[in-house]
Amino acid sequence: MSQYAGAGPTVHDPTTLPSDDNVNNYTFCVELKGSQWFLQKGKMIAYYGSIDFNGIGHGRLDRLVRTSFHSPLHASDWVVAEGSGKMLLADRAFDVNSYDLEDGNLTIRSGNLLAFQPTLALKQSIVPGFLTLIGTGKFVAASNGPVVFMEPPIRVDPQALVGWADCPSPCHHYDHGYMTGLMGGLRAMTGLGGASGEEHQFEFVGAGTVLLQSSETLMAEQATGAVPQQAGVPGSGVPSTGPSQQAGVPRLPGQLGDLQRRFGL
Amino acid sequence: MFRLQGSKVLAVEMTGDAVKAKNGSMVAYDGQMAFKKLSGGGEGIRGMVTRRITGEQMTVMEVRGQGTCWFADRASEINLVGLQGDKLFVESSNLLATDGGLRTGTSFTGLRGASQGNGLFTTTVEGHGQAAITSDGPAVVLRVSPQFPLSVDPGAYIAHQGNLRQSFQSGVTFRTLMGEGGGEAFQIRFEGDGLVYVQPSERNTIAGDV
């Protein structure tokens, strides 16, 4: 970056700050002209002009929230910024980037989303821990290292996944050959005999884009709020009442099935 | 002469003159260098006592010699600040190095310091020369002028220089107490003429959860 050329730092003021663009890799500038933005609490670092920050519960914002915020239990983590001026957003010195959606959809890990325009609707994803944005507009997301865009079919490491757009097929993939049987179970449980740590991936197929961060360090999870306690809702903790489902001992991650089931008992 | 090598290492070329730097921040040098610990930040007995009392302690060494000396601190980003007779206010934990000719001291910050969780006092640097300050992520330098006042989150503030008035803004309302606050309840408002340095990351502050 030019400001490290030794010539001294670049000084910004409201006229030189970009409008809805990155100031540097870690800071994003949003211009408000009487408009509104949703942002996660505590991600604003500085602003020029007069901007108000109000919690989602603010009565005046009811209409806005009704049209573009569909995650009622998530509300305490988000605020609405409105007014006019320029506002800088950043998140724990992570890389931030803005993305444009054109009448599209994108699902993103909840900890990575920083801010979005109210023309987009935010919804809680069926996949626990993820949020879905639908509509047209701009949003800002943080990632640990720059984001890479990949085309499915692809299998990705769970920790590197940031989100995906337009491809509704996220599923688990296990390296069965390596994990099944008694030895496989021992390897997975104890790490002895060479567990590579890559026996489990997320798989995406179909048309769309998958977003990956260039690091396997997850960002702190943002509570997405509890899902309704109903049968059939993933992550709700309510056991499904199907004959094939065994609502029993919680499984360890990567474990394929209970021993007794494997032996057909 | 201060120079950045990459964004996380400060190289200082010296010809017999001295710089003050955070204790233990030297990573390499060539030529002839002498490192001397300065008790009380080289501010004399009075400065030493002031720093002890105010809690704005810093352990500083004086480096003097011929050659190049490189400084770094926990891989944090380094920002150069040029001072032409004006005063830089910076948290002692963010100050990496200053020209030997610059005077350092402490000053009262009032509520702003309290909201940052950094205590009520801050470090001042004044004179003619260069200083290097560290930040978590590259700092953004924002100009404040009479027509453009600036509000800053206390957790992201690292330093400011020039002729600035700061006031403490609180948006605490009954909503905050009910857990429905705006999340940005405390801000420092800067007015006047000068520069403010903010980092793209927020320290944990008492305001963080409000």
The structural class of chain B is mainly beta
Radius of gyration of chain A (Å):
22 Å
Name of the CATH class of the largest domain in chain A: Alpha Beta
- Stretches with pLDDT under 50, minimum 5 residues of chain A: 1-7, 242-248
Distance between the ends of chain B: 43 Å
Fold blueprint:
The complex is a heterodimer of chains A (265) and B (210).
Chain A: E1 11-12, E2 21-24, E3 27-40, E4 44-55, H1 62-68, E5 69-70, E6 78-89, E7 95-109, E8 113-116, E9 120-124, E10 130-143, E11 147-150, E12 154-156, E13 161-165, E14 171-174, H2 176-179, H3 181-190, E15 200-204, E16 209-213, H4 259-262
Parallel strand pairs in A: 5-9
Antiparallel strand pairs in A: 2-3, 3-6, 3-8, 4-6, 7-10, 7-13, 8-10, 9-10, 11-16, 12-15, 13-16, 14-15
Chain B: E1 2-5, E2 9-22, E3 26-38, H1 44-54, E4 60-71, E5 77-90, E6 95-99, E7 103-108, H2 111-116, E8 121-135, E9 140-144, E10 150-152, E11 157-170, H3 174-177, E12 186-198
Antiparallel strand pairs in B: 1-2, 2-4, 2-6, 3-4, 5-8, 5-11, 6-8, 7-8, 9-12, 10-12, 11-12
